[in-house]
Design brief:
CATH architecture of the largest domain: 3-Layer(aba) Sandwich
Low-confidence stretches: none
Radius of gyration: 19 Å
Number of helices: 7
Strand order of the largest sheet: 1-16-17-15-12-9-10-11
CATH class of the largest domain: Alpha Beta
Distance between the termini: 22 Å
Mean pLDDT: 94
Order of helices and strands: EEEEEEEEHEHEHEHEEEHEHHEE
Helix content: 25-40%
Length: about 290
């Protein structure tokens, strides 16, 4: 398991009864997580300190219960990177802190490349990887179908003091964007993607990971440069094995370029118990 254990502004304080107690800077949130199927230790008083608690509804969705007045948003830091945090109506906060293991990895790869690197970040959400790649000196193209997420990513770039970096923001269906880049003859040295289990593009385009991911990976091969640096796939799809991502990378980029493929779970440390909470999977191809 790849553990994101270098955080100072974030921690999982405790877990139990389907919830995790998290510290985001100075704010403590209680949010649901379906993988937490063990009980809460009722002797632990930290659970009473939650500033806000997201209650999931049996009919879908849910709502926040605020136990104290909170700012609409606030900023946390990971090394030199800064991110805006804001509780949303769907329990999320705009950042997946476990992805810090990928930010550190890609920053090292970009800085050690010794050449200009062009990065394409697909399904890019609020731009954690975009900020990391830009901070490391890469030229970045950030693509997401949701206009609000693209605006949030721009704010994260601003908070990190990277407005002068070559970052292009695109609101579009990623499959169509890749096809257009192919026709334009555009190429990238690194591709990052965080595909959803299900999704819908701005024009009503449907995405289902089991049916769409492999042909999408095949399509992406046409816009890789002749000397690619890395390809990264993240997934939060329930039941999908890291080996599946390993196999897909082997059958696509691995057939065209020599390099190393690795895959595994991503996790976060739980302070009180010393255990690790699984938070998704990754697959990486990197040049040797």
């Amino acid at each position: 398991m790849y553990i994101a254990d270098q955080w100072k502004d974030y921690e999982i304080i405790d877990t139990g009864d389907g919830d995790k107690l998290e510290r985001w800077g100075d704010v403590v949130l209680r949010r649901p997580d379906p993988q937490i199927i063990w009980p809460v230790d009722t002797k632990v008083k930290d659970w009473q300190k939650a500033d806000a608690h997201y209650h999931r509804s049996s009919s879908g969705g849910g709502n926040w219960q605020f136990n104290k007045a909170l700012p609409e948003s606030w900023t946390i830091q990971y090394g030199e990177l800064r991110f805006q945090i804001r509780p949303t109506n769907f329990k999320h906060t705009g950042l997946f802190p476990e992805q810090a293991v990928n930010w550190s990895w890609m920053m090292d790869k970009i800085r050690q490349a010794g050449r200009p690197i062009r990065v394409l970040n697909l399904f890019a959400y609020t731009g954690g990887a975009t900020v990391a790649a830009a901070a490391a000196g890469a030229e970045v193209c950030h693509v997401d179908a949701a206009k609000g997420m693209v605006q949030w990513a721009k704010e994260n770039i601003r908070l990190s003091g990277l407005e002068d970096r070559p970052v292009r923001f695109i609101t579009d269906d990623v499959f169509k964007f890749v096809q257009r880049e192919q026709r334009r003859g555009k190429q990238y040295d690194a591709i990052i993607m965080d595909p959803p289990s299900y999704g819908r593009g701005p024009g009503g385009e449907m995405w289902k990971l089991e049916q769409s991911l492999y042909p999408f990976l095949e399509s992406c091969q046409s816009i890789l440069s002749d000397n690619p640096l890395f390809m990264l796939i993240n997934s939060y799809t329930t039941g999908l094995s890291p080996t599946v991502l390993h196999n897909m990378l082997h059958l696509t980029i691995g057939q065209r370029h020599k390099g190393k493929i690795s895959s595994g779970e991503i996790g976060l440390p739980i302070t009180r118990s010393g255990l690790h909470l699984p938070c998704g999977i990754l697959g990486r191809w990197e040049s040797m």
